[in-house]
Amino acid sequence: MIILTEIVNSIKEKFRNSTFIESFEIVDSGFINIKLSSTFLEESLQNHKKYS
Q1: In total, how many domains does the chain have?
Q2: To the nearest 5 percent, what fractions of the chain are helix, strand and coil?
Q3: 12, 29, 31, 34: which sits with the fewest CB atoms below 10 Å from its CB?
Q4: Is 8 in a helix, a strand, or coil?
Q5: Does the pLDDT value for residue 51 go beyond 80?
């Protein structure tokens, strides 16, 4: 679990000014939970539709 915490803290630091990650945390089961911002998801969906 200590290694996961270090990984999460490192990723949080690298993406702290990012607009596409809303939250990033370790959940009880040891999985990493990443919540993407709705704006990022909407833009991704629009781009996908445009190029499909």
Answers
A1: 1
A2: 50, 20, 25
A3: 29
A4: helix
A5: yes
